[in-house]
Design brief:
The structure holds 2 protein chains of 2 kinds. Chain A is an alpha/beta fold. Chain A has helices at residues 69-75, 82-91, 114-127, 140-153, 170-179, 191-204, 224-239, 253-257, 276-293, 304-317; strands spanning 16-19, 33-36, 55-61, 97-101, 132-135, 160-164, 182-186, 211-214, 249-251, 296-301.
Chain lengths: 322, 637
């Protein structure tokens, strides 16, 4: 007996955001990336349109990052050299975009000046043709200065810059508006705050199609189910026509997955856990795969080996199933 | 225990108390009422007094500064008499006469819809008074005094098969009264469905029977003197509830009451004294005697009703929040010491649940919502926001704890609506200049609930706060009114030199967040009820608002901040103190009283702490006006 699939119809769709700008559009990117735009739950092409495949932006830092050796080894001597590191990510690992973290700005660390940070961004822009996602060092006051300088230095490049948060969204939103960039709106695993922040940013004058939601996530084993359910609510809200929840979502997969003990300790300590080499890769890849299923559009990843696995996973999921 | 003298200034009033008595208790004994929001725990700092002479023992100084301590400032609740002492009670520590909502609305601000329900229910009061002329007994006409009287009463009252009873205390004085009155007597009776009871027999007179309609609020108590013959409200009087010295809210009252049987007795007596004081004032003004007061009808929240009757309220507070009774027995006044006829009955409105009480049932009666097809939303905004939704076929109710914000609690310069309270605020969006309307037209000392609603809407309108309630210090006006302090941000409503105190009157970011939580709780309560019965907000045909706060509320601003649903202004009605109005109705009509009892049974109580609906709604409501802007189409960005 033939089985008839039950199909849902959704009245609306996820908003589409464009990252990067080509020379014709006032930037210097060789190509732009579109994210979001889907009219159905993730990958369900038989129910609605799946417009853009999820992308992977690889994490690049301006100074040597505090990562574990299994990851560092894969980068070799480019660590601490953001230009070379970005090139390697794009050319060797196939990153769709670069996620540049300016951790050298940290006042507790190297305390680099906003101008120095802006220069790093310019250098990376010159070295690779893919769009850039740029964030600061998670010191709100310093980031406001740094990101203002970055936004100005990269005017026209249509970066995705962060982070706008409920208590600190004005300065970065203003910078994005003036210099024509997109903004990451981060809310702490809370659908209401997520929506409120989008309203606040939008009311300042930044169009909704210049905002990307960072719902904050937990890594595998560390509250990923909360993230999953918040993201599910946002996605269903978007499909039901809630404009203030309709932005594509970005997830800090590499950061959260690699915070887990499971991604860092060797088999010597926990023999039953198996080799760290494989475990670390899987920890990040499985975190990413889970979030893809609930509608992540931009995966911010770290471990090149995990990236390879997730690239294959995305390709599989994008196969026509209508 | 040795006795000590305590002298209170500036009254110069001296009383004797036992050594070890707190100044707070001593003051209360002297008839001087000191604020005590925390109920004497030494934490709120409201009961500051100045010790002028004497060496009382200090057991706590709370938040007093070293400077204040060196000046002799003490907390009355934590300072105990050891020897003779002289104390000054400054004005700011006193419970003052304030605007008690006596029923009708001040003109100008809001229109109140007068509900004349009397016609509908019919005039059939709960007590009557009849004058009868009995024939003198003789050797052959030798029926007993009571037979003689009851035969005559049966005739006059057309009592039919309904029994007429007489309590022992009345019977004991009957023979002398009859003979002294020369068999011409006025008889007062209470009327119940089950029959009549003689409550008083006096020498024949033509004074009409009166009843008391009493609203027992946690904060204020209001008494109406009602002529039972005409239905007229002859006089009214309101004051603060003397229980205020045991804490501001029902929870702290319960906590105090259950500490010991003596405490329960004390807090019970406090509310009886409050009502009696009001009654005494009214009857002396009207040249009446308490014997002319035939019956009393009270309406109060569940805790107030239990305390009025001296019933232990402890389980009201403890999960699963069970009141001792919903249907309240009617008791002779002598049992609780109310100043009406000793045998006159004191009726109380039934409760629905621990946090939906007789005051709400009384209000529901006044709204007449249970008698039509139209769906009506009734909101009583006080410390708790109680909400009733429904029509003739169904009624649901809930209580959401909004906190004391709208009554001035938890707000830096919050106060009740008494003289000196800011009640209206205008802010120029460009210069941030402020225009205030103050109760009593005196320099402002604080801000009351209606002023706070106004203020929140105007702060938002002027761009001083964003939709989340965050202060925007980088406002283009660069006004000095908007400033950061050590641990908060604030906006100056009145500079010190314009205010009635020594400090700038401000509203802080923290105040704003508290207000957003309070308004969010009420709106979430409304949404939760609507969700649970699957009613769309558009299906509501009337919104009736009651309560001390509801009287002065600005609908437009309330919608702007998301306190009230976004519906056309003509759907909103204000009925002021609906609790006392319902009590009057019930005094005057057996039908109304019966309907009140039915309402108590008919209303379904929904406990908001069960399930996640309320919490979800509450969190979405913590935004101006709401996270879901589509619920407030009339509110412009």
């Amino acid at each position: 007996m033939p089985v008839t699939l039950v199909k849902e119809k959704y009245p609306s769709k996820v908003g589409e955001v464009v990252l990067g700008a080509t020379a014709a559009e006032g930037g210097t990117r060789t190509s732009v990336i579109r994210v979001g735009g889907d009219g159905t739950l993730p990958f369900l092409q038989f129910e609605g349109s799946v417009e853009n495949r999820p992308i992977i932006a690889m994490e690049v830092t301006d100074i040597v990052p505090p990562w574990n050796d299994t990851i560092k080894e894969q980068f070799g001597d480019v660590l601490g050299n953001p230009v070379a590191m970005a090139k390697k990510c794009v050319e060797e690992f196939g990153a769709d975009a670069i996620y540049l973290k300016l951790i050298g700005a940290d006042p507790e660390g190297e305390n680099r000046s906003p101008e120095q940070c802006a220069q790093v961004v310019k250098d990376v822009l010159a070295a690779v043709g893919v769009p850039l996602i740029v964030v600061g060092c998670e010191d709100p006051e310093k980031d406001n200065e740094v990101m203002a300088a970055v936004a100005e230095a990269a005017a026209g490049e249509n970066l995705l810059i962060g982070l706008a948060e409920q208590d600190n969204y004005k300065s970065i939103t203003a910078a994005a508006m003036v210099h024509k960039h997109n903004v990451i709106a981060r809310s702490p695993l809370d659908i209401n705050i997520c929506k409120q922040l989008n309203i606040l940013i939008n009311e300042m004058g930044l169009p909704l199609n210049k905002i990307v939601i960072d719902p904050m996530i937990g890594g595998l084993g560390f509250g990923i189910e909360y993230a999953y359910s918040i993201m599910e609510r946002a996605r269903l809200g978007a499909l039901a026509g809630d404009k203030m929840l309709s932005m594509p979502m970005i997830c800090t997969v590499g950061y959260e997955a690699n915070r887990a003990k499971e991604a860092n300790v060797g088999a010597g300590e926990f023999p039953g856990w198996g080799e760290l080499q494989d475990r670390g890769i899987l920890w990040e890849a499985v975190t990413a795969a889970a979030l893809l299923q609930v509608g992540a559009s931009i995966l911010l990843m770290r471990n090149p080996a995990s990236v390879r696995l997730v690239q294959r996973n995305i390709a599989d999921m994008m196969e026509q199933n209508a | 225990m040795p006795q000590c003298q305590v002298k209170f200034m500036p009254e110069n009033r001296i009383i004797e108390v036992e050594s070890g008595t707190s100044l707070l208790k001593a003051a209360s004994k002297a008839g001087i009422y000191i604020k005590s929001s925390c109920g004497g725990k030494g934490s709120c700092g409201a009961c500051k007094v100045l010790v002028i002479s004497g060496e009382p023992q200090v057991e706590g100084t709370g938040n007093l500064s070293p400077e204040q301590l060196s000046q002799g400032v003490r907390l009355a609740c934590k300072t105990f008499v050891q020897s003779d002492v002289t104390v000054e009670v400054p004005p700011e520590s006193r419970l003052q006469e304030h605007q008690v909502l006596m029923g009708d609305v001040q003109k100008g601000l809001l229109k109140e819809t007068e509900e004349d329900m009397m016609e509908k229910f019919g005039h059939d009061p709960l007590a009557v008074k009849v004058r009868v002329q009995l024939s003198e007994p003789t050797l052959t006409e030798n029926a007993s005094d009571w037979s003689r009287l009851s035969m005559e009463l049966k005739k006059v009252l057309h009592a039919g098969a309904k029994p007429i009873q007489i309590p022992l205390t009345v019977l004991q004085t009957l023979p002398e009264t009859l003979r002294q009155a020369n068999w011409d007597v006025s008889v007062t009776l209470t009327v119940m469905e089950s029959g009549y009871t003689v409550t008083h027999v006096a020498k024949g007179n033509d004074i009409p029977p009166y009843g008391l309609a009493i609203d027992i609020g946690t904060t204020t108590v209001v008494v109406y003197l009602v002529n039972l013959l005409t239905g007229e409200i002859v006089d009214k009087q309101g004051t603060y509830n003397k229980q205020a010295k045991f804490g501001d809210d029902v929870i702290s009252r319960i906590v105090y009451a259950v500490e010991s049987p003596e405490n329960l007795q004390e807090i019970h007596q406090a509310v009886i004294d409050t009502v009696n004081d009001l009654t005494d004032k009214i009857i002396s003004r009207q040249n009446l005697n308490f014997n002319d007061l035939a019956v009393a009808m009270t309406a109060g929240n569940t805790t107030m009703t239990q305390l009025l009757l001296g019933v232990d309220p402890r389980y009201v507070r403890l999960e699963p929040y069970i009141p001792t009774m919903n249907d309240v027995p009617s008791v002779p006044a002598r049992q609780i010491g109310l100043h009406i006829l000793p045998e006159g009955l004191v009726h109380s409105f039934p409760s629905v649940a621990s946090y939906v009480g007789g005051d709400i049932v009384s209000g529901t009666l006044v709204t007449d919502m249970a008698n039509g097809e139209d769906i009506v939303l009734f909101i009583d905004i006080g410390t708790n926001g109680e909400i009733v939704l429904g029509n003739q076929d169904w009624l649901v109710s809930c209580a959401c704890s909004a906190g004391p914000c709208f009554e001035g609690g938890g707000i830096t310069f919050g106060m009740r609506a008494m003289p000196g309270a800011i009640e209206r605020v205008k802010i120029d969006p460009e210069t941030l200049d402020v225009n205030l309307k103050v109760v009593g037209r005196i320099p402002p000392v604080g801000i009351c609930g209606s002023g706070l609603v106004d203020c929140l809407a105007k702060l938002r309108e002027a761009g001083i706060i964003d939709r989340a309630g965050n202060f925007q210090l980088e406002h283009p006006s660069q006004s000095a009114r908007l400033r950061a302090t050590a641990d908060d941000k604030e906006f100056v409503l009145a500079w010190a030199h314009q205010s009635g105190g020594e400090k700038d009157v401000v509203i802080t970011e923290n105040d704003v967040k508290n207000l957003i939580r309070a308004k969010g709780a009420i709106y979430a309560g409304i949404r939760s009820l609507l969700t649970m019965v699957a009613v769309d907000i558009e299906m509501i045909s009337r919104i009736v608002i009651a309560g001390g706060f509801g009287n002065y509320l600005n609908v437009h601003d309330s919608v702007q901040i998301g306190l009230l649903p976004d519906l056309p202004e003509d759907k909103f009605q204000f009925i002021g103190n609906s609790s006392v109005k319902g009590a009057r109705l019930a005094l005057l009509s057996q039908n109304a009283w019966k309907e009140a009892a039915d309402l108590g049974h008919k209303m379904t109580y929904i406990e908001l702490s069960v399930g996640t609906t309320f919490m979800d709604e509450f969190v979405s409501a913590l935004f101006l006006p709401h996270t879901d802007l589509s619920l407030f189409p009339s509110v412009q960005g």
